[in-house]
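Table S5 (text form). Sequence records supplied for joint modeling of the two-component complex.
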Amino acid sequence: MNASTKIGPDPPIAVDEVVVTHEDMDRAYDRSRVSAARRSPGLRAHVSLLWLLVGPGILVMLGENDGPSMLSYAATGAKFGIGFFLPFVALTFVMALVVQEMTVRLGAATHRGHAELIFERFGPFWGWFSMIDLSLGNFLTLVTEFIAIRAGFGYFGVPPWAAVLVALVVLFSALLSHRYWTWERVTLAAAACNLVFVPIALMAHPQWGAIGHAMLTWTPMPHASQETLLILLSDIGATVTPWMLFFQQSATVDKGLTTKDIRFGRIDTVLGAGLAALAALGAIIATAPLFGHIGAANFAAAQFAQALEPIVGHIGSSLFALGMIEAGIVASITISTSSAYAFGEVARQPHSLNLPVNQGKSFYFVLCFCAAAAAAIVLIPNLPLTFVVLVVNVVAVLAMPPALVFLYLLVNDPQIMGDVRSPRWANVLAAGVVVLLTAAGVLFGISVVFPRAFAWLGS
Amino acid sequence: MDESKHITEEEVGWVLQNLDRDQLVQEKSAPVPRRQLRGGELLLVWALRIYLIFMMAVVLWQAWTAVR
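The corresponding structure-token record, covering 527 residues in total, follows.
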């Protein structure tokens, strides 16, 4: 070996045919801490190991509690009160858990991102279809994040240009360390603020008896109508979307998780789903007192915050607006990162949050460009922004079944998965999710093409 | 990590101790072997692709009517 060779990209170090890059060194450092914690005995070491290995699962779940998702939950509470939708939303998080667990195993076993695997395993024809779905969905969703940020800041009288500027500054600041670990911890700290919807729900003095009854009996049921179906789809799209598959797998790889860490990856995902479900149910419970007092035209973040003021007070409604800002900012960070990972994987360019800017120019450019373009769009006057918010979750539900089939094929592929391919029970659950999502999409299509079918059902 | 830092033999060994070989950027640059989709799989992915294109048309139509 040549001890005098330099580290860095120009050129990377070659030692006995092993090429080590800056990215490898950073990841090895993170892994050395994991190995040290794993070797240590006792509860403290176990907790330390958990602390080191959690991240992608919590981030993806709280990241998906984004602007349009929280608006969807708020609209659910205001439109339908406490009833069927409370356990239904909890069920959607179980669906998300089933799907996201597969991405942990896939990332840990292959050390490859989702877009990369689809491209290489099934060829560019299917790879490009997946990329088009992801890019379109991600960009539309990013636009809605900035709509939520703008609306949330609007409650405090902040002008739209200043609101999106603050969000972009936070997003860019999270990247400054050029270390996955630091980025993950900063974003996790911001994502934890999503739980602000829980105290808001408590401020609304919820009827615990009605909540318990709804959770056990799934009643009262909503009337069958196109509006109910739209909310149903919107709530599903608020929890399971294609960007989550791409993000969690790429983040699992960037973090350096291996098959030994799958158990902790699962705990991470369960923790994330639990926390996100808590915040989502909090938003529904908080807005349930608005049941019958708010119209469909008022489904914007600032209007919800204003409508809640007589119920939860000025502090509560300010927290609601802050929650919307947080939801938008965290999701804009995770979604733009998911786009940048996918671009790097497909273009075979360096793609890691461990890269310094000069080695990851295209990665950071895509990340920043997506966010800046989406931010600029929401500043264009007279765009039908509220409509975009309502449609984006529906588009996510429609795009999920094709994405899930590729995930299913990959996670059952013995050549790349080895011993950690999906067991039968996981396949049955995944198939159930695909059938449910497709059925919801077909019902939505029928309701649009034959609206009288639903009028008849509801009568 | 300081980019200008010299790496030693020990440090390279340390990286290899802490990372699986297939976690190295160098190893990840090798493509995963291609796999052909078979009859049932191909039918399913095509069916879902057509479903998605049709449903996106439905959403666009609904958007168009809503805007009008």
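Note: Chain B has three helices and no strands.
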